[in-house]
Amino acid sequence: MILRTIKNKLVLSLLPILMLSNLPAVADPIAQHSVDKTDKPAGQSFTLDQAIDYALNNNPDLQIATERIGQAEAQLGVALSAFYPQITAKVGYDHSNNPAQVFSMIVAQRDFGPNSINTINNPGYRQNFRPEIIGKLSLFRGGQDYQNSKAAELGISAAEFERSSVRNALIEAVTASYYAYLAAQEAHKVAQDAILAIAGELKLTTLRYEAGTILKSDVLSLEVKSAEAQDAQIRAANGIELAKTSIATLLGLSAEQAFTVASASSKLPDPKLASSFNDALELAMTQRPEVKAAANQVEISQLQVKSRQGAYLPKADAYVSYGQNSQSPGFSAGKDNVTAGISVEMDLFSGLETKNRVSAAERKAAEAREMERKTKLAIEQEVKIAFLKLQEALARMRVTEASVASADEALRLVHEQRRAETVTVTRYIEAEVARNKAHSDTIAARYDALSAEAALKKAVGDWK
Questions:
Q1: What's the CA angle centered on 460, arms 454 and 464, to 5 degrees?
Q2: What is the mean pLDDT of the segment spanning 77-105?
């Protein structure tokens, strides 16, 4: 449940970008470097690797997962404390005229004499000060302490697997946000180019209309096309800001911390499908932290069953007490008392509490086994979907790249024909729309392929 909650937070942080730009993307995993999370990135320009490094050191979800490892280590210390002696110091004071208690005080204080028996029924009031140190050691508790300590050790591993899962999702989210930002910039440039091209054509068409060589409808059509291009530019500009906001959230930056996103310093990597589905699935089942965490939970639940079953067995404790009894505060070695012994106890009937605790633990173990099976099925589905989407995206990328050259050439020819007044403005608008769509589709297809590649890398656990 915790891992699912953390993953949902990361997905939700990217949702506005993916919906608006439809240009998600990824990059290869970057090695982690040391970044001080207290540094203020005012005016800092983040490259992809710098953004990943900063997120790994400053993202709150990852910091929460790190703190949970510390909590699990502390829980192990609590479980191991059962194997150490428990030492307690205390001071008691009693004041009574109860014959039985007063007689006990007299004897414990070593003040019993020949005449003490004469006042046994009417001893009067007497007080007793008792400072003491008590030591206790658990000798046997039906194996519960041992099973609990082993479960606590596995709890540390579970917390580490959780952190690996968060890290895997975080790197993918930062990478996708970074490339979504670049994709939005590319879409903005396409919109600006379209505005400039249409503006030039609109100016020429307006002059021809004023000269009486073309119809008013041609001017109006270009004005509509110009408005559409401006609308696309506005949406692309907003997509840039949304992508930057998502990056800031993943980096753990507040709204007042200014930063910029650096463009890629080199050509973007070409996405590729490196392995078969069976190889990818086998790799995922081997290294995905969720699979290991699910198997870990099965082991923990089995240990908890054994721990609950230990309540049926006897319990043995050793104890020792050292102190003194006297009528006044202080300490006298002549009046010290030492008691040592071993106690053994066994619950004969606990109102069926032990039986129900064992039954609940067994049910939890069965649940853990089903969760492990469900996790494997979910990962198999994730790998299959990511694999198929990458195949589709790579095919679309090849098709759209081939269409760009054709669309550019078609627009050039139509533009020349338009100047020669051999085609209508409608044909020019169609060619312009086709060219812009080809360029937009190419950008979208490339980033879709990069995104699918990232999803496949996450599905097999490359960034754990």
A1: 85
A2: 91
Residue 347 tokens read as 């619950």
CA distance 464 to 458: 8
Per-residue pLDDT tens over the stretch 348-378:
888 898 999 999 999 999 999 999 999 999 9
Domain coordinates in residue numbering, the chain: 2-32+40-84+142-311+352-460
Alpha-carbon distance 148 to 141, whole Å?
Answer: 11
Q: Is the dihedral of CA 80, 82, 88, 93 positive or negative?
A: positive
- Quick one: pLDDT at residue 341? 94
Determine phi and psi for 428, rounding to 5 degrees.
-65, -45
Whether 42 contacts 238, CB under 8 Å:
no
Contact between residue 99 and residue 123 where contact means Cβ atoms under 8 Å apart: yes
pLDDT in tens, 42-65: 568 888 888 989 999 999 999 999
Classified by CATH at the fold level, domain 2-32+40-84+142-311+352-460 comes out as: Outer membrane efflux proteins (OEP) (1.20.1600)
| φ, ψ for residue 261, nearest 5 deg | -110, 120
Backbone φ and ψ for 127, nearest 5 degrees, come out as: -120, 160
Residue pair 252/64 in contact (Cβ under 8 Å)? The answer is: no
* Residue 450 pLDDT > 50: yes
Q: How confident is the model at residue 383 (pLDDT cuts 50, 70, 90)?
A: very high
- Three-class secondary structure assignment of the chain: CHHHHHHHHHHHHHHHHHHHHCCCCCCCCCCCCCCCCCCCCCCEEECHHHHHHHHHHHCHHHHHHHHHHHHHHHHHHHHHHHHCCEEEEEEEEEEECCHHHHHHHHHHCCCCCCCHHHHCCCCCCEEEEEEEEEEEEEEECCCHHHHHHHHHHHHHHHHHHHHHHHHHHHHHHHHHHHHHHHHHHHHHHHHHHHHHHHHHHHHHHHHHHHCCCCCHHHHHHHHHHHHHHHHHHHHHHHHHHHHHHHHHHHHCCCCCCCEEECCCCCCCCCCCCCCCHHHHHHHHHHHCHHHHHHHHHHHHHHHHHHHHHHHHCCEEEEEEEEEECECCCCCCHHHEEEEEEEEEECCCCCCCHHHHHHHHHHHHHHHHHHHHHHHHHHHHHHHHHHHHHHHHHHHHHHHHHHHHHHHHHHHHHHHHHHHCCCCCHHHHHHHHHHHHHHHHHHHHHHHHHHHHHHHHHHHHCCCC
Residues 6+ apart with CB under 8 A from 322: 132, 133, 336, 337, 338
14 pLDDT band, cuts 50/70/90, is very low
